[in-house]
Fold:
Amino acid sequence: MFHIFATIIGIYVALRLVPPLRWKASVKWIAGIFIVLLSQYHFIGRMVFGNMASPELPTGLLIFMGWLFGSFFLLAVFFLLKDMFSFVILLWRRFRRTRKPPFSPNRVNAVLLTAALVLSGIGVWQAVRVPDVKMVDITIKGLPSEMDGLKIVQLSDLHASRLLTGERNRAVVDKTNALKPDLILVTGDLVDGTVENRVDDVAPFRDFRAKYGVFSIPGNHEYYSSYVDWMKAFDGLGLNMLKNGHAVVIVNDRPLVIAGTTDRVAPNFGLPQPDIRAALNGIPDNAPVILLVHQPRGASRNAEAGVDLQLSGHTHGGQIMGAHWLVQLLNEGFVSGLYDVGDMKLYVSNGTGLWNGFPIRLGRTAEITEIVLHAG
Structure:
């Protein structure tokens, strides 16, 4: 269905951009076919270069294709907005009997194409660069005074791949360790691709350092890429995967629960679905609970279960300003930042990386999140 929808968009963009051009018919056909083929970038990647989640292509080529596909996507949005605006103008002219605006289609299309190419280039750069540290203070009601000032670094959606390689991941690890965190918590989607293809790209994760440990959960992309093998590999890297389970760390003689669940897509692969009851089974009485859940949907159920702080990712913050409103609708209103859900705090990270199939960020920057807890 995705590829059919992409084809329709490709035909739409080709019809809006190519016919007004003063080119030979043969050149127009070549340009139109190129645009439609560009819309099938993910389908071609799946069929020829591995799979849709992680085509095994050189980094430079992934960046170039990401720029082209991002330009195509933005141009489609621009043409849609232009056509909507033109329809309104048409109605206005019909009722007001005004003259036709003195803008040629080619001139307008040239402006839109240039804007798409430039913005896509900026978006790719924002996507692949090492993210800045975002500082967040979270006050938790009932947090013991002994835990006031506890420093957590949350990483999410690292998406190690041929795009976000070991070199970038090394920089993320170094930047994280420099914060001297008490806890490092990773909220899923660490990789794209198989264990064999990602050995060097995930190797830096072994060097995460935190006073009370490093804990992680699977995201939906782990299930697309040999879930069982990755769980073993992550545990071998010292990431302490929490799959409907929890760990108890002692902070200044007081217990703190770090719990985590599997991802919502797990049943599609015959694997255990998220189970908050199992994750919290047997936790110490009156201990504050931090829950790692990749997708923020369902946060209200976790709040009712007694969770004090939920950390999530998955949304990438919407990636593009404006598109985040749609992502918000698809995730029960949660897309980026801090939310109150009953008595529970929910923080949704914009993500530290992103999927290589759409490496664009515009106005929704990636983050290494430094969270400092305060007693309410």
